[in-house]
Design goal:
Elements lengths: L11 E6 L1 E2 L11 E2 L2 H21 L5 E8 L7 H14 L2 E11 L6 H9 L4 E7 L3 H7 L5 H13 L4 E8 L6 H12 L5 E6 L7 H8 L7 H17 L3 E4 L2 E3 L6 H7 L5 E3 L4 E4 L1 H6 L8 E6 L3 H9 L5 E7 L1 H12 L11 H12 L3 E4 L2 E4 L1 H4 L2 H9 L2
Parallel strand pairs: 1-4, 1-11, 2-3, 4-5, 5-6, 6-7, 7-8
Antiparallel strand pairs: 8-10, 9-10, 12-13, 13-14, 15-16
The structure holds iron/sulfur cluster.
The site of iron/sulfur cluster has 11 residues, from loops.
Length: 390
Amino acid sequence: MTAEGGPGPARSLYLHIPFCTQRCHYCDFAIQVGGPDLQGRYLQALLEELRWLGEARVAAPLESVFLGGGTPSLLRPELLERLLQAVVAGFRLAPQAEVTIEANPEGVTSERVRLWRGLGINRVSLGVQSLDDSTLSWLGRSHDAGQAERALAALRQGGMAALSCDLIYAVPGQDAATFERGLRRVLEFQPEHVSCYELTVEPGTPLARGVASGRSQSPQVEAFLEQRRLAVAVLGEAGLRRYEVSNYARPGCESRHNLVYWQGGAYLAAGSGAHGFLGPIEAAGLGFEGKGVALRYWHFRNAASYARSVADGSLGVRGHEWLTPEDLALERLACGLRLTTGVELQTPAQWRTAAHLQGLGLLEVAGGRVRATSNGVDVLDRLTLELAAV
Ligand code: SF4
């Protein structure tokens, strides 16, 4: 954080790889189905953006690099190698930097794990989602439970340093017992980190259309509450502490990259649909005009439009906005309340509201910070609104 309250220099880099084999029913991410022929052209654009970013920024060594998607594990090995070589050449990597790749089970083989480790990747975020075949099919996933288990085994046997598993709960038709069975099975592979996300119906997705037409059931609040409590208990028992609303880790294995987002830190981003967040000095260094305490910028969501924009010299950036100190304070409050370390409040009026919410059993106050209780986590948006209104 700077003296003016904005974020300091960016020490994290997000790279978006948009390719997926099919669109899962609930997904509204910036993805590109199929398109192996587009991979080379897309990577060319991404390398061009990285080259420019590496030259233009005042270099602070990167503490984390995150290849997200989409399905980065679908990137052809030679392209992945070129991409990571470009990151190392253009940016300094801090010793022990966290380098994460998101992967789907069908793309994980022993050979791939070996390749990833050889390229310096030390963390894999695996989209398991469920170990129940009918749930996976309901979600429109392209893998089955057997593939997910084989991927988990390959990652562990291949010596990947850190393994994170994504799971989805409150899926209609997946009862609490099925969810718990899957969770316990995943834990047998001793992941360092688990993310448990509730199923949400995002506008414009196949799931939203299914719910609107009555073909699909929507997630039920009772299932959501029951399965989330189950996740906290089962994961806690296994030594994975909840440190963010949806994220659980063994001590010291929290996602350093994602903590930068939640703690309001700066990060660079490249690739279609990617959002970056910078302090004013770095933003000006990258040519953004205007004023504020922080800047958010974003890229074209469509991979082909992104690649065209880079080729035209606009570097794929579709838009940006400057944040005022008030905007930034609100974002920090909303994100900070998601963390079990909580957040510092800024005004006496906020502290008075916090005392009221503490009396309702929704907030805890400790060490000059406030954090949501387990009941408070269930009404997090409401807490944020109450504290932001004063
Ligand atoms: S694999 Fe992930 S990014 Fe791709 S469509 Fe499914 S949910 Fe979306």
